[in-house]
Design a protein that fits this description.
3-stranded antiparallel beta sheet; 6-stranded antiparallel beta sheet
């Protein structure tokens, strides 16, 4: 069975100081989840996302707009066609630096953050 999801800002909800549309995960017929998550992100020009840090690797695929990504104090610019790799456990912020909304798809894995030892013993 083919699953088709349309990326649409109108389907996005406010998260992380921007608008995000969760496009993965979905449950299959048996209720199993995929090993990765993905979301389309929409950041208005001139604004920044909230700082984020998680125990998941992430890849940003820039679809349109111009921006800058700060990762633990290091910065890089990004524009449509760029792929930005964000290693786990590194704080990152995305800045919309162009005249139009910055749009990208983030793919992250594992789907759920690993449970830390102190959380298990609590």
């Amino acid at each position: 069975m083919i699953t088709k999801i349309r990326i649409d800002r109108n389907s996005a909800a406010e998260e992380f100081g921007m608008h995000c549309q969760r496009i993965v995960p979905w449950a299959d017929a048996a209720g199993a989840e995929p090993p990765v998550g993905a979301m389309a992100c929409f950041l208005p020009a001139g604004s920044s996302s909230e700082p984020d840090c998680h125990d998941q690797d992430e890849v940003m695929i820039i679809m349109s707009g111009t921006g800058r990504v700060t990762l633990d104090g290091e910065e890089t610019t990004c524009t449509a066609g760029d792929v930005v790799v964000l290693p786990r456990n590194k704080e990152h912020v995305v800045h919309g630096t162009g005249d139009t909304e910055l749009q990208w798809v983030s793919v992250y894995w594992p789907l759920h953050e690993p449970v830390k030892a102190e959380e298990v013993s609590a």
